Amino acid sequence: MAEHQKTAAEAGYLLCHCCRLLSRPLPGSVRPRCPRCGAVLHRRKPNSLARTWALTLTAYILYIPANLLPVMTVTMSGRGEPDTILSGVKELIVGGMWPLALLVFFASIVVPVLKLLVMTFLLLSVQFGSSWRPWERTVLYRLTESIGRWSMIDIFVITILVAVVELGALATIEAGAGAVAFGGVVVVTMFAAMSFDPRLIWDRMASKDGEVSSHPGPEAGYWMQQ
Fold first, then answer.
1. Dihedral, CA atoms, 101, 105, 111, 116, nearest 10 degrees?
2. Which of 1, 64, 103, 198 has a CA 20 to 30 Å removed from the CA of 93?
3. Helix count and strand count (H, E) for the chain
């Protein structure tokens, strides 16, 4: 078992959330500020768990109408039928556009669901002070934070179609309420990932076990850098 390694925060250093500068606040400072950008410094993001839980639960709620309500209505020759995300994927498959169907299915259904599940898992692991594989959980968080924005591909497609396909009486495309709800899911989950502080993973592990890791590895370097 590795001995507990002193963190930067324990040594009196704070990381700026804006410019990422690591600095030591002046002794006795009530609200220390970053010497480079002037932002208020915090040892950890304030109320990180509470805010992330609120945003994640909001995304779960929005995800229901995002899949039940139509995201787009295509009207051709006066006739049209609203499409949800799943029905749109089905239409693409029927039309033989398998690559586009897989892209929409992965970006609009798989990625948002996985991101919500990952955020829930990370929140629960920190909430219960889990010491299970902190480095892997940190990497999982970084991946989730970076790929979440690509879920907007469905909204991008609808926006482009609405702007381009303007053929008057021949064909029109209108965005539905489902597109608004889905856009809300993507935006809220992005804010949830931003509000979550991955350093809490290491804090809870250290406070529970008094150790950083059961084996030397890249997680120890991450621990010392934060």
1. 170
2. 64
3. 9, 5
